[in-house]
Amino acid sequence: MGGANGRKRIIILGGGCGGVVAATNLGRLLGARHEVILVDRRSHHVFMPAFLFVMVGRRQPEDISRSLSHLAKRNVKVIQDEVVGIDPVRQEVTLRKEKIGYDYLITALGLQTRPDLVPGFAEASLHPWEMETAVRLHKALTAFEGGRVVVGIPLGPYRCPPAPYEATWMLDGYFTQRGIRERVEIEFFTREPEPTGEAHDPVVWMDAESKRRNIKQNYEFVVRSIDPERKAVTGLYGYKLSYDLLVMVPPHRPAQVLLDSGLADAETGIRVDYNTLKTKWNNVYAIGDCADMPASKAGGVAHQEADVLAHNLAVEITGRGQPVNLWLHTI
Length: 331
Ligand SMILES: Cc1cc2nc3c(=O)[nH]c(=O)nc-3n(C[C@H](O)[C@H](O)[C@H](O)COP(=O)(O)OP(=O)(O)OC[C@H]3O[C@@H](n4cnc5c(N)ncnc54)[C@H](O)[C@@H]3O)c2cc1C
What we know:
This protein has eight helices and 21 strands. With 331 residues, it is of the alpha/beta class. It has two domains: 4-110 and 255-318, 3-Layer(bba) Sandwich (FAD/NAD(P)-binding domain); 114-248, FAD/NAD(P)-binding domain, CATH 3.50.50.60. A five-stranded parallel sheet has the order 5-2-1-9-20. Strands 13-12-11-17 form a four-stranded parallel sheet. Helix 1 packs parallel to helix 8 (299-318). The two termini are 40 Å apart. The model has no long low-confidence stretch (mean pLDDT 96). Bound molecules: flavin-adenine dinucleotide. Flavin-adenine dinucleotide is lined by residues 14-19, 39-42, 48-49, 51-52, 82-83, 108-110, 128-129, 159-160, 163, 255, 257, 288-290, 297-300, 302.
């Protein structure tokens, strides 16, 4: 690659929190002198933190989606297509409809949900970790008149570690507002041990807040399978939790194309240098949920990483300014 007059092509895979910020910044910093391309299978950016509000009917899907075509104003070309292959040696990306070479590649493909990894999950759980299931969960909630609602976490990484707690609190508020809270038991399970320590420690505080809201906590509960007929979740050592409505987080894994192309070799994503987000391949970087960083899988993290990487790439390409190291502000 490397076009006439030193023109560089930067391809960003994924138009989620990390990809949109990286593309916006690079388009602004590089202008039309270089080529910034963003690829996503969707035509729209979807703001996933608001799935919790879709769950309780306070947002509609269209309120939390924005067309990626707005990026054209920032000198970013958007291609709506599926990424099916990445060849970091040839510096080439394969889409369903075409192959494109790059000078720099930023992978921001997030995580994919894998309901198939827990037997019974797909039939049993309605959850706000995808738009479609958040909409179905809202419908189920409006028909719910009382019983046991169980919210829980599987093994492995997932988007936004505190969100399951927020989900239980929002359900508490939702049922209170409907005037049926005393007819609903809300129960929570997690693979984590019971938190101990100072009251201001976030996990200790979240535990206390849940208890204050009369939400029962089950710690060290490792899900093995779900029986949708009997409405029961089975954990390690035969522990069981029965439910009337199950709101369990699906297992998450790196995007299939990252596993197939060998870029992601860990459950938690692509190995990167913690300061620079460089991978072991030349000119290939990873940001957001698909990067194996010692940080939460969170939009706020993806945003900070995108800011730093866009700055550093612009410095490298234009020769102006100084590169900076990543310094994450997160819990
Ligand atoms: C219920 C919930 C609540 C949350 N709350 C918060 C919060 O309060 N604060 C916070 O910071 N974070 C929160 N998050 C997490 C946050 O949404 C994610 O961490 C963030 O979106 C990750 O950004 P990303 O750019 O890495 O990936 P994503 O936003 O997942 O974007 C990945 C993009 O890649 C595209 N893609 C994937 N594979 C392909 C392919 N093969 N071909 C083409 N396109 C592909 C997808 O369509 C998607 O647009 C929450 C998430 C959920 C689900």
